[in-house]
Amino acid sequence: MASVNHLKVYDEISQSHLEDQNPRPKTAPRRSSAAVVIIIFTAILLFTLVIILTLVALMLEEPNKGRDPTDSVESIKTICNVTRYPESCFTDLSSLNVSKNLDPESFLNLSLRVSITHLSNLSSSFKSLNDLHSQPALKDCLTLFDDALSRLNDSASAMKAGPGLSKEKISDIQTWISAAVTDQETCNDGLEEMGWTAGDEVKSRARSFKESLSNSLAIAANMQDLVQKFGLTMH
């Protein structure tokens, strides 16, 4: 009996030793209910954020939906935004019924045509004045107007000479338009010195010419930036 007991004890010890050598795999602990709630909440939050961002993107895109980047109205606004008198610029260019796909060079040419038209109207108003021959300052203005018209015609001719605009050509055009601006300002100074008061029609035409001339100069001065906005390059 003693030997049997010794064998039983030995078996128990051996079994215990084997269990220590090969421990049973531990089962993974269950996630707590709090962790599950956090995961669900995070997923809902991310889903909601995606929906909000999508709606915001659609709202931002809606104003531009269907807008043609080559639309004449938008193109004119882009051009006139660089001028000192954007409202008169937009009115003048819009009145010409410009077509789509015009580039900044074409708009500068149109703006010069507008300035030439306003100058011709202003010169005609001065020529019709009764006191033209008795006031030297008025005669001086007509001479200055002729010089300004020559400068503007030089600018228009330069744009027609050769394909595209170069930086050198734009520089020449700016110089000629600036000279026309100087002629206009010299005329105004002479009229102020003599204390001459122009009629409403002459004032209106003088203001139209002044603003159109300023607009033409601004378009020429910003030509390189405008060309880039239209996705083009300066020649």
From TrEMBL:
Superkingdom field: Eukaryota
Bilayer-crossing regions: 34-60
SMART domains, sorted: PMEI
E.C. number(s) listed in UniProt: 3.1.1.11
Keywords in alphabetical order: Disulfide bond, Glycoprotein, Membrane, Signal, Transmembrane, Transmembrane helix
EC supergroup of this enzyme: hydrolase
Domain Pectinesterase inhibitor positions: 71-219
GO MF term (any one): pectinesterase activity
Family named by the database record: In the N-terminal section; belongs to the PMEI family. In the C-terminal section; belongs to the pectinesterase family.
PANTHER family: PECTINESTERASE 1-LIKE (PTHR31080:SF303), PECTINESTERASE INHIBITOR-LIKE (PTHR31080)
Listed name of the protein: pectinesterase
Protein's organism: Hibiscus trionum
